[in-house]
Amino acid sequence: MTHTNKFRLLMPLALSLSVLVGCDQQADEAPLPAATGETAPPRAEITAPVDTAGAAGTHASSSHRWVGTVRAKHHVELAPGMTGVIASIAVEEGDTVEAGQRLFRIEGSSVQLAVSQAQSVVASAELQLAEAEREAERTRKLAERGSVGSANLERAEAGVEAAKAGVKQAKAGTALARSRTSDLSVESPISGIVTAKHKNVGEVATMMPPTIVLVIDDISTVEVRVRVPELKLREIDIGSPISVHFPALDLDLEVPITRIGNTVDPRSRTIELIIDVANPDLRIKSGMSVEVAIKAPTPSDAPKSSDTAPAPSDAASEQDTAPTAPTAPTAMIGGPHNRAG
Fold first, then answer.
1. CA 12 to chain CA centroid, nearest Å
2. What is the dihedral of CA 254, 258, 263, 268, to 10 degrees?
3. Does the 109-182 domain belong in CATH 3.90.1200?
4. CA dist., res. 138 & res. 131, Å (int)
5. Spatial separation of the C-alpha atoms in residues 182 and 106, rounded to whole Å
6. pLDDT tens by residue, 5-27
7. For 163, how many CA atoms within 13 A lie in the half-sphere containing its CB?
């Protein structure tokens, strides 16, 4: 390696060392200012944050939103009163029905046969009763002439009573069979809309376990159900106004709280609110998502601070006006280099 190359390599190193030596000399020449005393720099003023809301005696006007669900005020799931094949369905999904309207019917040939059989039993029991009455009358006449004893008459009269009981039993069986015919037809217990149809004509529907054939919802008034933190119970009560927003309809309403749940979920620490919302035009549908907002307390609800500060007490005034005793000089303890030699 030539002398020229060595010189080129050593030049950057020499420049770096000279810069470091210059920095050390400047540090020795300009020491840090003292932390205290007359030569200490002034302290920077740090402005403390001011709580304007607290100073004005108001609360923040923020609000919180929770997502809930819309449910029908009245919800009915209809199953047949007896097991059988569906003979007819008079409605379809979306149809409006009235209370008492017949919705579907179960095929009832076996029920009709049971009614006919019960009627035959009644007829047979009535014939037996008539025969027992004739036998009792004949035995009574013979007993009056002394041809038969009283025991025979008592047996004949007992036969009449047994025949009468048989007639009553047969008629009860007929009434029971006929009552089964009313179970063939299913009527709507409420006025509303058919929201679901789970079975069709020709399918078997059972009574136990119940087979749901139709679902009826009354949505003229809907329920909004939402869960909120239990701490919100300090701000709301039954009848408190609450904001309800339906995103699907871009609809905002303010309605009172109808009911508050009686139990708090121990896992989420939330409680359910139930809000009834009138729905005369039936635009709000069951199952819709809804956003519920509870407004924060307004400034009028917050405690107001007094306009003037309280006057100082007499004792405090005397203490403030009393002469201040001179303070003893503070001894400064310096380091070893500050001691007298």
1. 77
2. -10
3. no
4. 11
5. 10
6. 655 666 666 666 665 555 555 44
7. 20
Arch. (CATH architecture) of 77-107+185-205: Beta Barrel (2.40)
User: Per residue in 30-89, pLDDT tens?
Assistant: 555 555 666 666 665 554 444 433 433 333 334 578 999 999 999 999 999 888 899 999
- Beta strand residue intervals within the chain, DSSP E: 63-78, 84-89, 96-97, 102-106, 185-187, 192-197, 204-205, 214-229, 241-246, 251-256, 259-265, 270-278, 289-295
Structure tokens at 268: 């989420």
Q: What Å distances lie between residue 153 and 48, 130, 160, 307, CA to CA?
A: 118, 16, 11, 111
Cα–Cα dist 290/284, whole Å: 10
Range with the lowest mean pLDDT among 32-46, 101-115, 327-341? 327-341
Helix (H, G, I), strand (E, B) or coil at 13: helix
**212: which residues sit within 8 A by CB, 6+ positions away?**
77, 78, 79, 198, 199
Tokens representing residue 196 in the block:
């679901």
Residue that has been written with the tokens 């007992």 in this structure: 158
Which CATH code of 1.10.3720.10, 3.40.190.10, 2.40.30.170, 3.40.50.1100 fits the domain covering 63-73+214-297?
Answer: 2.40.30.170
